[in-house]
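Blackboard transcription, Thursday session:
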Amino acid sequence: MSKNLPAISPLAPARFPRMPEIPGVRFSALAAGLKYTGRKDLFLAEMAKGTQVAGVFTTSKTASEPVTWCRDALKDGKGRALVVNAGNANAFTGAAGFKTVDITATATAKAVGCRKSDVFVASTGVIGETFDGQLIANLVNKMAKTLKPGNWKAAAEAIRTTDTFSKAATAKAMIGGKSVTIGGIAKGSGMIAPDMATMLSFVFTDAKIPSNILQKLLAASNKKSFNSITVDSDTSTSDTCLLFATGQARNTTINSAADPALKEFKAALDQVMQSLAHQIVRDGEGATKFVAVTVEGAENNKAARRIALSVANSPLVKTAIAGEDANWGRVVMAVGKAGERADRDKMRIQFGDHVIANDGGAVPDYDEDPVAAYMKGDEIQITTHVGIGRGKATVWTCDLTHGYITINADYRS
Amino acid sequence: MSKNLPAISPLAPARFPRMPEIPGVRFSALAAGLKYTGRKDLFLAEMAKGTQVAGVFTTSKTASEPVTWCRDALKDGKGRALVVNAGNANAFTGAAGFKTVDITATATAKAVGCRKSDVFVASTGVIGETFDGQLIANLVNKMAKTLKPGNWKAAAEAIRTTDTFSKAATAKAMIGGKSVTIGGIAKGSGMIAPDMATMLSFVFTDAKIPSNILQKLLAASNKKSFNSITVDSDTSTSDTCLLFATGQARNTTINSAADPALKEFKAALDQVMQSLAHQIVRDGEGATKFVAVTVEGAENNKAARRIALSVANSPLVKTAIAGEDANWGRVVMAVGKAGERADRDKMRIQFGDHVIANDGGAVPDYDEDPVAAYMKGDEIQITTHVGIGRGKATVWTCDLTHGYITINADYRS
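(Written on the board underneath:)
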């Protein structure tokens, strides 16, 4: 476990994925110099007329001004533009913060030719520092003139803060005989915990799905992706995930979230959302191991999820994994503190395929050597059966290393 | 912030306190070699006939065998002996674990001449490894012959695991014209979080208070001490706090926890419990700063406590303090994620006496220099007013440093 920070997370995917154009979606990104120099930090997306939108946001009681704005803008289910800046979160900025969003949205609406209420705004970066919306307003006109389809790499780069790599994912699906495409980007590596887990994610599709149904699909998929990851149990003030559907695929009319025609689309959306969520964990601050925690045999799925998060958030479990130690005693501890029912004397704990404890105690013929070898890998699966019922859940996290301390004890200096 | 671990926490008190004898209480401690070598790791306390006892324990659903034993032994409110071993927690050890406790208690009962159900047992150390109770049984007879009043230093040493210093506290009080004495020891530095926060604490007094009233006093004091500290949000399987009252002070009869004669005693008990709890935080694994988090203006005291714990448990707040950074944005985030009501636009945040944010934004004339100087101290007070009601709470924690990672990523190796 190195105390030096790698430039790119050792868990990063080998390459940025090949991303398709989404009919009805165009991007522009540039270096506005709001905080960073020498990199893109401002992103504009323009969606075709008629685009439907869904969104899920942080549950924080101190949500940022852009989150408040987006919640309002979402009410009519229509979205034509998205502006995102990195470097300043415009959170805890009071009346000045609202003004910044309003100036940004007004200028963007003018630049792309839509209503102000069809503009979505997201900001990520330092909390508590105001910045002038005019800085963005001065640039969106220029950006609107350079909009291009498929410029994913620039988009994914422009929304990064402490991320060590750009995150994107895509999938295809058939809806009633028509092929539709989904593509998304995300950013986030610290201040990551459920409700919402992402900091920012924007997903686009050419599927034609009305906003009320889109909202249900997004909420369901979000539960299995961004809300099932945790890096450090801290919940951001700015977490935002938006899903835009341009409708340009002209698929059959969808009247309900339960429509069987949506089966493939749901799976494809899950795939994109889960890939983006996993990429955020893989970019967890200081992460050297990608960890899946599965809980089985809980009272119900909700109890299983709560236990899994207790394990995934435990600093003692996470440091043990960093130390490549299959310390199942700490897993027992973390199961115990979750507050959900667990039968201590029926519990089973395994790392990968290696059953370490069973029926409430270490297995009699426990051989540490193969487990020690397993712990040296960079993907760790912890599975525990808690001996109560049939509830099951999986959440994803990373280990807790010196890198996390180095990054976060020095962030502002 | 050093990555090297000091032998003794930089936050340790200057010296072990001068501790009084408690009439009716005798101690013995020795090196049993259960795990450690060259230090005491087994502690026996014998209390006079008629001693009343109260106890509070971990809320873990995977509590250790000794915790289960103590809960049973507590039922009749009588206690004559206490045996504590360090090095093995006897947790998640199933039927073998119960047998270990039973053998220990049987031998101890014989050695001090009491019923088995009047023997209390506590174990701390590694989880999931069985050990033979006979190892202790063979020693208690010898220990019973060397019992002495006032051997606090040896007792406090014998119950340590990763602690870097021995912890004890004392106070005196008058009950109805009679002077009574309270003395206690504690151990714990990691796996520390509310419900219960301590790992182990044993408090003794010569006051004459019946067990049912003693239990109420202990529970109330525990809430303001051990249940108001957190090092890493992890809850141990073994947390135990026992309060033994020998009655040798022969004070006036106490018939109710609300008896005015108990006023001084309650304050003295709080003082001892809070001192021990603070010493545990001061010995937090890798700690370099002692941090008090006070929340005011919450909906009620319970909400205030929940918000305070959210701040005190936030890895981002704790790493910022380690980096001597008055990062109030992270405090806003941690208040927001607590799930309790907070008025973002009325919030006030101060570090020590320095008001940094007010009415939902940074103070206009914020001068960072005096705050930066304040953050270099080793005692940090964070106070936040959340602008809702009159609820108030204080909890105590420490910073999160490279030392915590070093200790916990290498614990078993």
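Lecturer's comment: Residues 263-282 of chain A form the longest helix (20 residues).
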